[in-house]
Amino acid sequence: MIKKIVITATIISALSGILFYGINNDTGLREFTKYYGECEYQQADFQMIGPEDAVFFDEDTLIGCHTNLLKMYILGIPLDQIEKGGCYAVTGIASQQFNIQQLKLIGYPKELNFFPHGQYIKGNTYYVCNHGYEKSNGDRIEVFEVVKSKNGDISLVFKYFTHLGPRFTGDANDLVVLDNQRFLVTDWFPIAFPLEGPSHLSQAERDQIQMFQEKKIRGSHLWECQFKINQLAECKIVEESNGVMVNGVAFDQKDTILISDTLGQKLRSFKIQKDGSLKFHQVIDTRLAADNINYDQVRNQFLVSGTLNSQNDMQNLIPNVQQVQYNPGNKSIITYWAGVDIVKLDEETNQLITSELFTAEKANVIVAGGLISHSGDFLFLTSYADKSISICKKQN
Q1: Model pTM?
Q2: Most buried residue, 94, 172, 306, 366, by most Cβ within 10 Å?
Q3: What DSSP element (H or E) covers 280?
Q4: Which residue ranges run through the membrane (predicted)?
């Protein structure tokens, strides 16, 4: 039986101010499905609400994790009342015979929370930002080995963690692993959350977050960290990375790092110098409340995804959360405008330029990320709040 969540108008007003205080496009929105359309949910026989991020393991397999981030951060539901987080894989992509499987976490301590957020893969090693809260004394980067059996079953074998310290509690959003010693991680809020979870924010803390978002104060950052196996990582802020809500981060596997500022509606790029340091390179305006960034190695381009009318659409979503997250159908039942843009290097100017790839009214609820299959036949949309990922077909 699905438990009903009763939310008063006062609580909706207070809590929805925690996130998405602002992008509001009342006019000019129109669908753009020239390249990809006919989006449908990938149906699963297990709960996978909030499949916020995903990565390609190989051309036939997409791996991702899920957490009901909407209930955790926007509705402020206590942690023990939120659906358990977990991981999944979509297989059969190359043959177009899609199958979705729940992944076992082998060796991960059962006494700890697993509320995954951003992810990164390097070979067979899978890195996950985990909002561990009180049970792990804050956020950690969990490190797994991806194991694929001969019959196609996939599991995640826990190897080690690195702890992120008190500044990152509830805040470790997305990451990039540069090498075995060094990684980058974003903190999407200007303050850390209580160890007990977002439901324990004081009114003063809520007011502080809302002030930062309303006034567009740039109190969120990209951090450069050194791995410390099963210990506290050493982290420092990357200069000129500050934004209103620094969220996604991606690496082109050469010399360029790109980050998103969701509420600032900016992208910022950095160049890796010969000594390994990061130097600010460019700021780009974006039409999106940009969330995740994925690097498409097949086509040598960044894919930036996000919403387009989050403030208005959120007001429509909150009273309908249960219907959306337990929707039995294969298509979204409410409007939540979203898009995916291409960001690519212009070799003549050495600047990154953007172009629109996809815009839709009901592709998925709070689209967080977009990934194109190796063949180019499918666009996968991950989600901050919906029941599953969506798969959109290439249009002729």
Answers
A1: 0.94
A2: 306
A3: strand 278-285
A4: 5-23
